[in-house]
Design a protein that fits this description.
The protein is an alpha+beta fold. The chain is built from five helices and seven strands; from the N terminus they run H-E-E-H-H-H-E-E-E-E-H-E. Helix content is 28%, strand content 17%. A five-stranded antiparallel beta sheet has the order 6-5-4-3-7. The protein has a two-stranded antiparallel sheet with strand order 1-2.
């Protein structure tokens, strides 16, 4: 039998098979590989003026100002004996609350937050004002003068007016700390760099006694 006739047919079949294999290989290379958990890149948000996808990787940088609050001071200062009656009542109310634990929104007697402690102390001393946040107290009272800033009873505010305490003297203040409860703390580096300002709560003035002139 002659092989001349089947040979062109076999050559055509081999050529067609090679062309088909090349086409399949090209399609396989171009097709993206799918994973079992495809990432959806649809949701977008605006962050600091720039658009980013919700599933972008965001690196949280450490806060350079974040520090642990220093330990509480166990020994409070000795107040001078010549302070007036309102100041003595304030000091007595503060001393009664030293060591009381902290709780957000609490006004005592078993728990206090910072503004609740301030409000409770002044109420016990007979000085009435509405219970309010540190920010509201800041707006309610007038700024302290330079001579009043470190006078006992002045309010001192910290952390962008989010925390408030009562000045003891130029060395420290009383406050309800979220870490330590009601304590006396010194004006150390930790607190000094966080001071927002001072406000003075008006204290009642003692009525002077006028002796009647004898005849």
């Amino acid at each position: 039998m002659s092989l001349t006739k089947p040979f062109p047919l076999m050559l055509a079949v081999c050529f067609a098979s090679s062309l088909l294999a090349t086409n399949v290989s090209a399609q396989t290379t171009a097709r993206p590989r799918q994973t079992s958990n495809p990432v959806q890149l649809t949701a977008r948000t605006i962050v600091r003026g720039a658009t980013r996808l919700e599933n972008d990787v965001v690196v949280a940088l450490p806060d350079p100002t974040a520090e642990d609050e220093p330990d509480a001071v166990e020994i409070a200062p000795v107040m001078p004996e010549h302070i007036g009656r309102p100041e003595r009542m304030l000091l007595s109310a503060i001393e009664e609350r030293l060591g009381t634990p902290y709780r957000m929104g609490a006004t005592g007697p078993n728990r206090y937050d910072c503004s609740g402690f301030v409000w409770s102390v002044y109420q016990s001393a007979g000085i009435n004002f509405e219970r309010a946040t540190a920010h509201t107290l800041w707006n309610e009272f007038a700024p302290a003068t330079e001579d009043e800033k470190h006078k006992f009873g002045t309010l001192v505010f910290f952390n962008n007016v989010r925390h408030v305490g009562i000045v003891a003297d130029e060395n420290g203040f009383y406050h309800a700390s979220s870490s330590h409860g009601v304590v006396y703390s010194r004006f150390n580096d930790y607190w000094l760099k966080r001071i927002a300002g001072f406000r003075r709560v008006p204290l009642p003035q003692a009525t002077p006694m006028i002796a009647s002139a004898g005849r």
